[in-house]
Amino acid sequence: MLRSFRKIRFWLQAERIGPDMPLTHLLLFSKRAGHWLARKKLKVCEAGAEIRPHAYLVETKHISLGKNVVVRPGCKLFAVADSQGRGQIILDENVLVGSDVHIYVSNHTFGDPDQDIIYQGHDTPSSVHIKRGAWIGAGAIILPGVTVGRNAVVGAGSVVTRDVADNSVVVGSPAREVRRCTSGRDPSASNPPGAISA
Ligand SMILES: CC(C)(COP(=O)(O)OP(=O)(O)OC[C@H]1O[C@@H](n2cnc3c(N)ncnc32)[C@H](O)[C@@H]1OP(=O)(O)O)[C@@H](O)C(=O)NCCC(=O)NCCS
After folding, report:
1. Is 108 known to be catalytic?
2. 34, 41, 150, 174: which has the fewest C-beta neighbours closer than 10 Å?
3. What is the pTM of this model?
4. Nearest C-alpha to atom 37 of ligand 1 is from which residue?
């Protein structure tokens, strides 16, 4: 009995959400309970932000979800608790995230050829920031230190190793720019329909 109570308390308090934390996983099946959990565990969880079942988030106190951001099934957001705030994952307002998107903020250290990598520790983490309105296609992988610009598009299955400029479309592994979107409209307009130019 006491063990079960401790386990439930652990699931509610630990900075993780996902299938290996059964209670947190179950709560995600209810939109309202899931939002409550996300507000409790994440650094920031704005109105309309949602985490769907089968997403997996680690070091949740270093993850911020802006307004309307939905973290879909199969996504893995692995932040790092770093005292200087270098391991954050920040998804701004209206970022679209496809299913199975992975975001990482740290690398294993591997420079010593004589020591197993498991014993070499980690490099300094480097935050990932996805700016407002960007779209990350399904199955994309965003690597440590990357900033994806405003309204940029990352193609499905891409591996993003470098920053992505505002309004650009990047695809492949490593992700390369294939086009940029321009509107030619007043940027202060509320929802300008963008025209795509190659
Ligand atoms: C990125 C994307 C939006 C680009 O669409 P588009 O502007 O119509 O681009 P095009 O189809 O004209 O492709 C341009 C080039 O990039 C390549 N390309 C497009 N998407 C690619 C991808 N995901 N990975 C690798 N290459 C890709 C095309 O083959 C083409 O190359 P080519 O010029 O050598 O023929 C689209 O391909 C994509 O990946 N969508 C994601 C879908 C998704 O994840 N949906 C989940 C719902 S959230």
Report:
1. yes
2. 174
3. 0.91
4. 155
